[in-house]
Each structure stands twice: as structure tokens, then as C-alpha cells.
Amino acid sequence: MPLHLPQRGHTVTALHVCRHCDGLITDPDDAVFLWHEAALSGPGWDVYAHREHADLVEPDPTPIRILARVLIARALSDG
Ligand SMILES: [Zn+2]
């Protein structure tokens, strides 16, 4: 009789940190996906917030920061 391997894939529950209050979101039903944040190296990460806090999170400033960094690097390389 072949070994029955346990099903995998549904046992891993990723815990998310609320972007607004930095609290751990322990209830998956309470986690609201906001956006995916790109990382310079690696796949990046997903940003979540508590359902009550999702409306309080500021818009993603990351593209502005990246743009500023590009402009600074360009200004420096131009001399
Ligand atoms: Zn929160």
C-alpha cells in the first residue's frame, strides 16, 4: 500500500503586517491587500492593512522615491 503524502499548499498561512499601524494581521479575513511593492532585488512583497485601516493608508510613495533617486543619480553622473 503506497504511502499517502499529506496535502500541502493550504497549511501555510502568511502573516501580514498592517501598513497603517504596523500591527500583525492575524485574521486573514481582516487583511486587505493594498498593492504590490517592487524590490530592487527579489520579487518584492505585498502590502496589507487591517480592514479598518485600509482607508487610512497613505498612497504609495515608492514611485516618487524611485523617480527622485533616478533624477539624483542622473544629476550626479552629469557632473
Ligand atoms: Zn492596522
Structure commentary:
- By secondary structure, this protein is an alpha+beta fold.
- The chain has one domain (16-78).
- It contains one helix and four strands.
- The protein has one helix spanning 62-78, and strands spanning 16-17, 24-25, 31-37, 45-50.
- A two-stranded antiparallel ribbon has the order 1-2. Strands 3-4 form a two-stranded antiparallel sheet.
- Strand 1 and strand 2 form a beta hairpin.
- The longest helix is centred in the C-terminal third of the chain and has 17 residues, at 62-78.
- It is flat, with a radius of gyration of 19 Å.
- The model has no long low-confidence stretch (mean pLDDT 80).
- Zinc ion is lined by residues 18, 20-21, 23, 49-50, 53.
Mean pLDDT: 80
The SS-based structural class is: alpha+beta
Largest sheet: 2 strands, antiparallel
Task: Give, in order, the helices and strands.
Answer: EEEEH
For the record, give the distance between the C-alpha atoms at the N and C termini, rounded to a whole number: 73 Å
Net shape: flat
Ligand names? zinc ion
Low-confidence stretches: none
Q: Find the count of extended strands (DSSP E, 2+ residues).
A: 4
**Percentage beta strand:** 15-25%
Query: How many structural units, i.e. domains?
Result: 1
Could you estimate the helical fraction of the residues in percent? Answer: 10-25%
